[in-house]
Design goal:
This is VOC family protein. The chain is of the alpha/beta class and about 130 residues long. The protein is built from 3 helices and 8 strands.
């Protein structure tokens, strides 16, 4: 078994596309900026994040037609230099809600939200610093 992606169901596809592509700097697979589906990948690793228009999935499962309430997901991305990355994405329009700050003695984190309110955690693994 292989994890292909984590898929987020969104209502404002274009805003989320810009957030994951233009602000966070993930690479879109096809360039489908208007949706209804796109997969994004980081520069390294095999994991991916996909966006799917919520109304498209509602055609398959009626129960997802309603807007989500509360936090239903947490996207976690590892970065090498957390402070520099947070400065970079802030200049591109992101709002960091918390951090960068220590989470444990082995990790520093920062938190932000995408345009749909999904939580994004940026992690810097201190053990990998050599």
């Amino acid at each position: 078994m292989e994890l292909a992606q984590v898929r987020l169901l969104v209502t404002d596809f274009a805003a989320c596309y810009r957030f994951y592509g233009d602000i966070l700097g993930l690479k879109p697979q096809s360039g489908a900026a208007e949706g209804p589906y796109e997969k994004f990948s980081p520069a390294v690793g095999s994991a991916g994040i996909a966006l799917q228009d919520r109304s498209m999935m509602a055609e398959v499962l009626d129960e997802v037609g309603d807007a989500a309430t509360g936090h239903r997901s947490l996207v976690v991305l590892r970065v090498d230099a957390l402070d520099a990355y947070c400065e970079e994405i802030t200049l591109r329009g992101a709002t960091v809600l918390h951090g960068p700050a220590p989470m444990t003695d082995r990790m520093r984190v920062a938190h932000l939200k995408d345009p749909e309110g999904n939580l994004v955690e940026l992690q810097e693994w201190l053990l990998l610093r050599g």
